[in-house]
Amino acid sequence: MSVQAFADLLERLVFTPGRNAKIALMRRWFAEQPDPDRGVGLAALTGELAFTAAKPMVIRELVESRVDKVLLALSHDYVGDLAETVALIWPQREGVNAPPPSLSEVVEGLELASRAEVPALMEGWLDTLDAGGRLALIKLVTGGLRVGASARLAKTALAEWSGQEVGEIEEVWHGVAPPYIPLFRWLEGQGPRPDAAGAPVFRPLMLAHPLEAPADVAAVEANPGDWRAEWKWDGIRVQLTAGPGGRRMWSRTGEDISGAFPEIAEAMEFHAVLDGELLVIRDGTVAPFSDLQQRLNRKVIGPKLMRDYPVAVRLYDLLLDGEEDLRALPFDARRARLEAWYARHAPARMDVSEMIPFTGLDHLSGLRDTARAASIEGLMLKRADSPYLPGRVKGLWWKWKRAPLTVDAVLMYAQRGHGKRSSYYSDYTFGLWRTNEDGTRELVPVGKAYSGFTDQELVMLDRWVRNHTTGRFGPVREVEKAFVLEVIFDAAQLSSRHRSGVAMRFPRIARLRPDKPAEEADALETLMAMVENRPAGA
Amino acid sequence: MTVTPLGLYCEPGNFFIDPSRPVERAVISHGHADHARPGHKAVLATPDTLAIMRARFGEDRAGDVQEPLRYGESVTRNGVRITLLPAGHVLGSAQIVLEWKGSRIVVSGDYKRARDPTCAPFEPMECDVFVTEATFALPVFHHPPAEHEIRRLLDSVALFPERAHVVGAYALGKTQRIIALLREAGWDRPVYLHGAVEKLCTLYESLGVPLGDLRPVPKGLKRGHPPILAGEIVIAPPSAESTPWARRLADPVTAAASGWMTVRQRAKLRGVELPLIVSDHADWDELLATIEEVRAPEVWVTHGRDDALIHALSLRGVRGRALHLVGREDEEDEGAPEAPAGTEVPAGAAH
């Protein structure tokens, strides 16, 4: 199979909004492609295939040798993206009838070629491919491959295709490498389960449901002694895996994020698997999530960044102690092992999440609502006898967020949704009033929400948007500033990236307020007063 | 030949070509809304184009005097000989050949060179001045064979049998070409039509273009009716997928058939899930090949990317001139306005 088939898969993934449709596309890839191409494709989908064999400059020079400069400039200006322009404009040499390369040929070719040989190699391949194939090839070679699916979704597709649990796949994942032939043999029932053999592997995290339904609340209330409580911190849930095979910090979806946090990896001088929350902690105080965001998506982690945003892990659970798997033990037993383990190792940049003693839910909700630190989202309730199970198992762990904050905001823009919502204006940008120096008032956008409403409310909002449009920008409509939305959110934080200077955490629409005049919506100062990361003296 | 605010005017013959407002005498290249407009006094066009104009504008607004002229036949007006030749764009589309005092101008209207089972193929004619469109006149536009794009559509239907596939296509030409190509590819199931594309399909069939089993998308479903047409192909005007009309369909895959689908950002902006590159306009290679074939030393460009085309012609020693005709909107661009709930988009909604 050629690069062409892979290009077709990428193309459809990029344009397909629906999760199930993406899974169907990937399932077909696994079912129909031969080895080793299917494994190379899987590596590309999971982000394990990163080349920087050629700089975009090389591609530009190649195309400039074949295309008139003026036409190239006009085309680039029209298309926008250089790789796409080159893919589309590439004039194939007459009489080329070599077959297009297979995906594995490309990968092998790039691995063996010296940097100086890459342009000639590329030129030969480009002549055999169509525009879609050329785009995939250029993106692959220059390291700009963007896949319309997460690694987690690719593994889910692998699970659905094979009938194996996704958790099982995660456990063997980091013990296999492209093109994953032993993995596919196992999934097709023709080979043994691959052995991770001491390599650090990700184990799917145990997740919680929100505690909302009255019956669930009553069940907790009936036997408070069966439950344990901890703060729910607003950071990044992580799994730490360390042992003779190496050290890794995984995100909730199994992405290796160790590289962005070298100081944590350095502190992992133990042989264990732990569950915890990655936080920015200064002098024992947890900073809000926006501080942690400063450490994400960075190419270079400099000493200043590490000094200004010092990270630590607050430990929740102990999954493996050495090679001993504790996941089947009840929570209380694991907690005792965690405390003993911590007392023994006392690793730097880590502490143990505090247990909160309580008498009943009333007591607990009082504690929850008086803890107004921005870094606390609410409480976690865990059954004392709960084993550590992968995924979101109902009835064992609950997350109990504190009451959200509220503002009444004015609908300003609406955008059409995707997939099932593509005929509905379902993404709403809303604003609050700001008073200018000359006393006039204007609306400033403060956030965007696309959830919280019922299906009937969506129909109603969609109709309102269509009937009150004042401007159109592609899929976005500007509307009359006349509809008030009651917006709830978990926290407000100062932000230099937003025009309003403030960002909301998890805004969603609580109620429609068609009765309320827009002039009576809240002012920006109201939201500003809710900000919790105000610098001292401000 | 002069350029006026109304469009191209042939002075010795005293007629306009594809004028943008009602005139005394018009010669019309084809039935698209930006070329054929209602209310002219006398209209000269192919019989099929006149039939399309009557269907779109009504019997009384398609020209008080209608003069049909078949492909290859000629008439003379004040010494100007007019001949119509197939342009391969849509059914009835014609190049307008004008001969006067020993020189020949060919006004190609809109045209393509790719195969189209619903209309006669373009016939090149050598001339002194060739008047061309330039809708897709950038070297990034290479339309793949339409058959290839139809296979991609059928492949998607096979992969998602639980979803309806809605192909956004212009009502005149593109719709019928897609249906005919589907039939050639072996799709013999009914093809379902949005109300705005029905009328012209019926007309094409009456003019001798068979389209097979066509059915209207069911209307007037009760609220809460389960979604319909899973596994089927529906043809609708561009943008219909974003109107409440689309809500009756089973989890629709929105496809769009247009030359603009070549560029990802345009496809993305439209929210298209399956972009199909099917165009009734000449792509870059077709434009250059055609201009070479007609051997015209001078080329006039009516609308589109005249900058790129004129530059490319200058490299070949051909003189190019941009006419900047106004009011030429290309029908492959997002055309139909959104209809309010419960109504259908009117035919020919691209004004």
Written description of the protein model:
The complex is a heterodimer of chains A (538) and B (351). Chain A is globular. The mean pLDDT of chain A is 89. In chain A, strands 4, 5, 6, 7, 8, 9 and 10 form a 7-stranded mixed sheet that branches. In chain A, helix 1 packs antiparallel against helix 2 (19-32), helix 1 crosses helix 9 (131-142) and helix 5 (69-79) crosses helix 6 (82-89). With 538 residues, chain A is an alpha+beta fold. Chain B folds into 2 domains: 2-140 and 280-322, Metallo-beta-lactamase, Chain A; 146-276, 3-Layer(aba) Sandwich (Rossmann fold). Helix content of chain B is 21%, strand content 24%. Chain B has helices at 47-57, 146-159, 174-184, 195-206, 264-269, 284-294, 306-315; strands at residues 2-4, 7-10, 15-17, 25-27, 42-45, 65-68, 74-77, 80-86, 94-100, 103-107, 129-134, 165-168, 191-193, 214-216, 233-236, 253-257, 274-276, 298-304, 319-322. The two termini of chain B are 26 Å apart. The interface between A and B is large, with 40 and 43 residues.
SSE topology:
The complex is a heterodimer of chains A (538) and B (351).
Chain A: H1 3-15, H2 19-32, H3 37-45, H4 56-64, H5 69-79, H6 82-89, H7 103-112, H8 118-128, H9 131-142, H10 151-162, H11 166-173, H12 181-187, E1 206-207, E2 209-210, H13 214-222, E3 227-233, E4 236-243, E5 246-251, H14 262-267, E6 272-282, E7 285-286, H15 289-293, H16 303-308, E8 311-321, E9 324-325, H17 331-345, E10 350-352, H18 361-370, E11 376-383, E12 391-392, E13 397-401, E14 405-416, E15 425-435, E16 441-449, H19 455-467, E17 469-473, E18 476-479, E19 484-489, E20 491-494, E21 502-505, E22 508-513, H20 524-528
Parallel strand pairs in A: 1-12, 2-13, 8-10
Antiparallel strand pairs in A: 3-11, 4-5, 4-6, 6-7, 6-8, 8-9, 11-13, 14-15, 14-18, 14-19, 15-16, 17-18, 19-22, 20-21
Helix pairs in contact in A: 1-2, 1-9, 2-10, 4-6, 5-6, 6-9
Chain B: E1 2-4, E2 7-10, E3 15-17, E4 25-27, E5 42-45, H1 47-57, E6 65-68, E7 74-77, E8 80-86, E9 94-100, E10 103-107, E11 129-134, H2 146-159, E12 165-168, H3 174-184, E13 191-193, H4 195-206, E14 214-216, E15 233-236, E16 253-257, H5 264-269, E17 274-276, H6 284-294, E18 298-304, H7 306-315, E19 319-322
Parallel strand pairs in B: 3-4, 4-5, 5-6, 10-11, 11-18, 12-15, 12-16, 13-14, 13-15, 16-17, 18-19
Antiparallel strand pairs in B: 1-2, 2-3, 7-8, 8-9, 9-10
